Amino acid sequence: xxxxxxxxxxxxxxxxxxxxxxxxxxxxxxxxxxxxxxxxxxxxxxxxxxxxxxxxxxxxxxxxxxxxxxxxxxxxxxxxxxxxxxxxxxxxxxxxxxxxxxxxxxxxxxxxxxxxxxxxxxxxxxxxxxxxxxxxxxxxxxxxxxxxxxxxxxxxxxxxxxxxxxxxxxxxxxxxxxxxxxxxxxxxxxxxxxxxxxxxxxxxxxxxxxxxxxxxxxxxxxxxxxxxxxxxxxxxxxxxxxxxxxxxxxxxxxxxxxxxxxxxxxxxxxxxxxxxxxxxxxxxxxxxxxxxxxxxxxxxxxxxxxxxxxxxxxxxxxxxxxxxxxxxxxxxxxxxxxxxxxxxxxxxxxxxxxxxxxxxxxxxxxxxxxxxxxxxxxxxxxxxxxxxxxxxxxxxxxxxxxxxxxxxxxxxxxxxxxxxxxxxxxxxxxxxxxxxxxxxxxxxxxxxxxxxxxxxxxxxxxxxxxxxxxxxxxxxxxxxxxxxxxxxxxxxxxxxxxxxxxxxxxxxxxxxxxxxxxxxxxxxxxxxxxxxxxxxxxxxxxxxxxxxxxxxxxxxxxxxxxxxxxxxxxxxxxxxxxxxxxxxxxxxxxxxxxxxxxxxxxxxxxxxxxxxxxxxxxxxxxxxxxxxxxxxxxxxxxxxxxxxxxxxxxxxxxxxxxxxxxx
Length: 663
Description:
This protein has 663 residues and is of the alpha/beta class. It folds into 2 domains: 1-191, Urease, subunit C, domain 1 (Roll); 198-490, TIM Barrel, CATH 3.20.20.140. 24% of the residues lie in helices and 20% in strands. The chain has 18 helices and 28 strands. The strands form 6 sheets. Strands 7, 8, 9, 10, 11, 12, 21, 22, 23 and 24 form a 10-stranded mixed sheet that branches. Strands 13, 14, 15, 16, 17, 18, 19, 20, 25 and 26 form a 10-stranded parallel sheet that branches. Strands 1-6 form a two-stranded antiparallel ribbon. Strand 7 (122-131) and strand 8 (134-143) form a beta hairpin. Helix 6 (294-307) packs parallel to helix 7 (324-331) and helix 10 crosses helix 11.
């Protein structure tokens, strides 16, 4: 399409452009009512590229030459108040009456066809992608339930490619041009944010309603164990044995979520563990309520090493079989995933949190301690009594609960998340945590740290620091990774889920910025809309109240069987046909070579110490780390940088809270 430039039409002011097409390069978006803002670093959807002169966005000419004249296109306006943008594309994809995606305009006549190279089944237009790899605006192509392209949708009959030949992209994900055909559905991403579906690695499978709560919050993958509201399952994420594993697969077959089952690792029976792997578990859970001795840990890790599955550990709170050093010694440097590393959910009291600094430990939080507030401690006592079948009338049981609830370690958990030392967020659903709040609690923690300590400077380049960059892209990327890509890596499923990248399952969450982290606008499962904010079904349009998160066609009939997967070990001998289920079985990758260094943007390994009397937590700061890197002796480094305990701050007010749940 040739755009004729006229002096009175070629300039589109920023606010007008945003109204028409959504935010573009350089625009900032506030995440709901938090203090977090993200900035669009590039626009791949036909919008505006970054100006090399002063950071203002302009579009390069088709031949790659800079057509800017060096003058500001804002005419007679205060440059500080109005930042004009120049659009020489004119090909941004918008659907609707009088809009672009119509036959012989934005929509081509190219049929879908078979194979992988035809037009997509669905396109999400002009959406801001927030993922661990960056913050960009793009059109997103989905075909056969997978993401097939990120970049610019176009019609080759009327438009030119805009990304061909460019190699100077700052992100590891590169944009492409792709064709929209007559068989392509359109989802508008204008003004919205797209993230990968959440991956919850700590789910107690207690009741079916959990799945709806998870989907309504943006979680599309559930990993855990349980058989229902049995005492064993309300306390531990374990599905013990072949019979229970098979029936859990059957029970979850009609729900549009990916499922990974954890078997019981608290046993010295190698045969029992191997039988569970053959039945389809993707890992084992060792829990102190079943026994978490060093011998049990070693025996389970040996089976994990031979079967390539993961171990999830809830360690010995009472220090009955040894202290944290004994548990660490049992690891023998083998990698494993540790649940609720802070310790309130379980683990060696009071210093379980020190394992965050180990290179073979993949540490996770559960959401009830996130972030530390004025109500957190009081809530935990009652939760613990119920979940672990304690009697508040017994002194020993009260002491057990008190030893696990420590404000000082909860406060340190805030800091460790922000510095990237705790890699994963999870829920601990219905066993001290809330399945529908994993994503919300993640962003509440990020907000608290932003308001308390300001911007994460490690994510800024020299120019951004000099210009006092206000957006917090690095922190947003770090926190979104905690519930998307990192849990997927930990359990060997990151080649299928966990990020917005080509080739991956289209498990995607579309957010209105004002509801980000709280109420998704749409949840796509395997490319099909499974949950959405929808109004009264008897209304004349989809928007009349009550607007609620409701299951839609991707969550009904046989749809979950084709848009979701059950994860199993490569050593599993069971098949979907034998189980009589619709969901396909997907083999996980080897998890035995996954270490802390592989946790994206969350791989810090600080030295951590807990005072055994006061429970104060001392975290090695960057001063000591730098001196040690220069080969200064540890004692000298500590003398030059004396450690201070992590401060204990209680948040008294949080975003993403009551104002969103009045109705």
